[in-house]
Amino acid sequence: MRRIVEIPLEEVVPTAEAVLRSLGGPSDRDAGARVEQLLREALEEFRAEAEPRGIYAGVDAVEFATIYAGEGDNEAPSPLLEIFPRADRLALFAATVGGQVSDRIAALFDEGSLALGATLDAVASEATELAGVHLDRVALEEARSEGTADADTRVLRYSPGYCGWNITGQRALFAALDPGAIGIELTASCLMQPLKSISGVMVMGPAEIHDFAADYGFCSDCRTKDCRLRIRELKSRD
Ligand code: SF4
């Protein structure tokens, strides 16, 4: 069943530390008066413009295999191809902080307020991830209340455009989920509008199902090796 989630604004307002980290600055010492002022302004702008919402829908492994196959552009093997059959539960998802934030970022850059525009962009990116975290929590609570998840169940999200899942996979994902219901559209080049949106699949099960060696062919081009941190964090999560 498809579920639309109105996400409370305070759930997605990021910490100053997270925004500074995202901007590439120091997060553990005094950022300086100018940066602190920019952060205050950006958070104020964000609070005024954000409309965080999410949508998710459970799918079984057979349905997801077709959605994941998409237009046949994925790398094989890939982590998700190995992981999703081991999941206890799968759900397609999309989340956004809304179009007004992206419009405001573009307006700030247009009028030459580059520092504030970049800070608001970082706030919105962090907030978009927090919208995903909120959806994880809602979907996990639902699964636990239905008895299909227990205390050891964890959620990890995977998205088209990463780790071997080709960005063209967005088309099959959008066709199955219809994130247009919360205002997210897909462009011809598979970018989401509003830009500050995320989509993909939530994979639920014991943390160990996400164990894999990051030695796929495409991993040699990966600069972040982000999967290592995500899996470590997943295992340390309550
Ligand atoms: S190393 Fe990079 S590309 Fe490879 S699985 Fe991890 S995050 Fe994905």
Characterization of this structure:
The protein is α+β, with helices and mostly antiparallel strands. It has one domain: NADH Oxidase (3-Layer(aba) Sandwich), CATH 3.40.109. It is 45% helix and 17% strand. The chain has a 5-stranded antiparallel beta sheet with strand order 1-2-3-7-4, with helices on both faces. The chain has a two-stranded antiparallel ribbon with strand order 5-6. Helix 3 (33-49) crosses helix 7. The longest helix is centred in the middle third of the chain and has 32 residues, at 114-145. The two termini are 27 Å apart. The structure holds iron/sulfur cluster (SF4).
Describe the structure in brief.
The chain has 238 residues and is α+β, with helices and mostly antiparallel strands.
Offer a few descriptive terms:
17% strand, 45% helix, 9 helices, 238 residues, five-stranded antiparallel beta sheet, NADH Oxidase, alpha+beta
Topology of this structure?
Elements: E1 2-6, H1 9-12, H2 16-22, H3 33-49, E2 53-59, H4 61-69, H5 79-83, E3 89-96, H6 99-110, H7 114-145, E4 153-158, H8 169-177, E5 185-186, E6 192-193, E7 197-206, H9 226-236
Antiparallel strand pairs: 1-2, 2-3, 3-7, 4-7, 5-6
Helix pairs in contact: 2-7, 3-7, 4-8, 6-7
The structure holds iron/sulfur cluster.
